[in-house]
Amino acid sequence: MDALFFEDYETDFELTTARRTIGETEIVLFATMTGLHEAPFMSDVDAAEGVFGSRVSPALLTMAIAEGLVVLSGLLHGTAIAFLSVGNVRTPRPVLLGDTVRARVKLLEKRLTSKGHAGVVITSHQVLNQRDEIVMEYEMTRMIKLRPAAHAAATTA
How many angstroms separate the CA atoms of 149 and 128, rounded? Predict the structure, then answer.
């Protein structure tokens, strides 16, 4: 997909990303890098005795992978200026070791920044597993470039 400038986001915008399986390597590296040395992430035996019955992906890893899939789609290449916030995060189901996830993104709101030099785009993200179950939901706010011609018109007006 081509990257979208602020003006390109229509009210019916929707993107479904490619899929990615969350495996042993991703979970162990993320848990080790972040210090999340907890049984649900690191121990097959302990996790099997836990509430989920097997090892799970840390929620922040799931979100990071979902955001990586959005970036890999090409949507933000060369147009994203800044990450502003993430909110309303929900994790209704665990992501188990070996689950395959994808993200579905929809436009919630867009507006110009107070200075008018860029746009603010708020999107809802649903992360789904291979069974089409929602495993995570959140809202992402980013600053997005205006088209060069639109930016020039906004700064000279």
Answer: 37
